Amino acid sequence: MAISIHSKALKSELLGAGSAAARVQRKPLQFEPPRNPYLPFHRSLMRQPRRHFGLVIPGPSPPAYTHVKVREIGCQLLASSSDSFKNPLRERQLRRECPWSVPPGTVNITGLSLLSGRPRHSRFHISHSNSYGIDGNNLVILTGLIITGTTHPTKEIIYTITDSDPSLIILHPSFSHMKTAIQEACPDIPFFDLIPLVASTKSLVPLPPFHASLPQSRRALMIYTSGTTSNPKGCVTTHKNITFQAECLAKAWEYTPADHLIHVLPLHHVHGIINGLTATLLAGATVEMHTKFDPAVVWRRWCDRGSSTMFFAVPTVYSRLVDYFDAHIRSTELEPDARRGTKALRLVVSGSAALPTPIKTKFAEITGQVLLERYGMTEIGMGISCGLDIETRIDGSVGWPLPGVQVRLTNKETGQVVAVETEEAGMIEVKGDNVFLEYWRRPEATAKEFTADGWFKTGDVAKRDSNGAYYIQGRASVDLIKSGGYKISALEVERKMLALDEIQEVVVVGLADEEWGQRVAAVVKQRSGTPALELSPLRIRLREEMASYKVPTVLKLVDNIERNAMGKVNKRDIIKTYWPDKA
């Protein structure tokens, strides 16, 4: 089931963007080094948030609704509420017709403005229904009450609930099997069941004006970071943070109301909730949401030329799209439509994990699209990005600081700022209105991650070239391997190994070793139908691509490499699983 969202929050001129046709025309490749494409924008960021949203909710064939009252929606959402709980949703009548074409199975629903009024406390916890955590019902809550959400086993969900101390719990029907356990663990928190809603509209009526008075410093969103060495922490961002993050991307990536995004990302990560949902709605564009990623569905939508202009995903998704094309579309009657449809895309972004060069190259060969890479994290939203012009999309680089975002590199041992004119690797530090407020109820942990002069320490290592473009080397804690006195980037080794046809996925880690300090080890998932890899011949081939001290000395072949919803691998868990004595 898919859903679509539309908004008239902003006109394209407010974003400073030209027409859709003008944006699609790219400059010819030039032979001069690429420069920071965001310098003109750093002093011209918008400062006024827009708060009108439209919404389409999934469901069966809808009845003919022409009016929908927000109070009625609220009463259904909170159907199991007690009389003592004051309904936070005020009545607002509105109607809207969905003016765009949508695929079969999509339900057109009334528009929905941001809901006014809220209960005494502002922390709500919603349990998402699947690994991607996308559901139109969640969006009803999101647009009125900024939510916290996650997808975990019962034990971890209970931890998140008790740690966040929410005012109420809203449970998706798919989590009904957890209801008793959650209620027993959290007996004092009001509990509400989410009931699916279906409606339709027949006329187009502008959304009513909405004048909310809300301090920008107020806490708005809490997303729990993955815990590798300790329990996950609630990362709290304010309305000011979210507004800046969304407006920054809308400006830099030139979102306009003409854009149409096929959304397949989870909403409990900033990639999905800020880049994909909030910024797109802010620009007045259309968001077509899917409950999960299915390569067949995405290719079918792309074959419908002009059906979408944007697509955001993680490298694993692009790898599966390439594999599906080769297996089911190449050399068939679908190939011409697929190639024409993808060439109509104007912005295709990869993030949340390092993009292997082979995937980038294969995707470009099929679609004509050079993937745009960027750098971000829960605590900062997006901080660095390549530009819209193709010449700024340098292989292996994530680009330049986004408008209004300050980025610097510091020496890990001394803390000294790395000079701009040098290409020395350093720890990435970020400053700006995009940076989060705090880790929830962890003042010491929060203070530890900031410098005395207010810069956030990301924990990631990068290099910067003479033109100011950044190249991520990985997490200082797990992606930098120290072997025999050398510092090795695990991400670099992974990129080189993925260039081999036999390797479909690879994770490179450092294993403790008395002689070398650490040994370079590779966990490999082979491509189906290829001969089994052996360490010695593999090392010979890799020495042609990289220095011998970087080549793995340990090889582990596996059937599957476990990743989270964003395609990320927990390398500490990889070591615990395959080399428990080295963990």
From TrEMBL:
Domain AMP-dependent synthetase/ligase: 150-440
Domain AMP-binding enzyme C-terminal: 492-568
Domain of life: Eukaryota
PROSITE patterns: AMP_BINDING
Any one Pfam family match given in the protein's UniProt record, by short name: AMP-binding
CDD domains: MCS
One example of a Gene Ontology biological process annotation: fatty acid metabolic process
InterPro entries (alphabetical): AMP-bd_C, AMP-bd_C_sf, AMP-binding_CS, AMP-dep_synth/lig_dom, ANL_N_sf
Gene Ontology molecular function, alphabetical: medium-chain fatty acid-CoA ligase activity
Protein name: Acyl-CoA synthetase
